[in-house]
Amino acid sequence: MTGKHLEHNAHKHLGLCCHHHNEVSETSVRLLLLSFAVNMLLSAAEFVGGIVAGSVALIGDALHNTSDALSILIAVIAFKIGRKKASAKYTYGFKRAEIIGGFVNLILLFISGCYLLLEGVERLIKPEIIDGHIIIWISVLALVIDAVTAKISHHDAHHNANMKMVFIHNLADAFGSVGVIISGLCVLWFGIYRIDGIVALIIAFYMIFQAVVSFPKIVDILMNAAPTDIDVEEVKRAVLALDGISGIHHVHLWSISEHETALECHVESCNLDISRQISQLLNKKFGITHCNIQVEQHNCCVDCNL
Question: Do residues 177 and 61 touch, judged by C-beta distance below 8 A?
Answer without folding.
Answer: yes
